[in-house]
């Protein structure tokens, strides 16, 4: 189970599932714990909703930094 993210303005829903799946794969391939993997994937998907187009424009490092800072509300 992941944190719920409040996205103030959804820009584009296309690609959110792909971003989540990419986050899961990233977690599995980099040795993250199951909870870390789900948290990473959920934030990657939430952030994707703030960009136009069908791919996430944030790096794994940027998503990891956002997780460390405790992001719950997403403003862009």
Helix/strand layout:
Elements: E1 6-7, H1 16-29, H2 34-48, H3 60-68, E2 73-74
Parallel strand pairs: 1-2
Q: Please, what is the average pLDDT?
A: 84
Strand count: 2
Work out the helicity level: 40-55%
Shape: globular
Strand order of the largest sheet: 1-2
Measured between the Cα atoms of the first and last residue, the distance is: 25 Å
Q: How many H/I helical runs?
A: 3
Order of helices and strands: EHHHE
Uncertain segments: none
Protein structure class: mainly alpha
Taken as a percent bin, the fraction of beta residues is 5-15%
Radius of gyration: 11 Å
Main sheet overview: 2 strands, parallel
Note the main attributes of this structure.
single chain, 76 residues, mainly alpha, two-stranded parallel ribbon, 2 strands, 5% strand
Descriptive overview:
- The longest helix has 15 residues, at 34-48.
- 50% of the residues lie in helices and 5% in strands.
- It has 76 residues and is mostly helical.
- The mean pLDDT is 84.
- A two-stranded parallel sheet has the order 1-2.
- The protein is built from 3 helices and 2 strands; from the N terminus they run βαααβ.
- It is globular, with a radius of gyration of 11 Å.
- Helix 1 runs antiparallel to helix 2 and helix 2 (34-48) packs across helix 3.
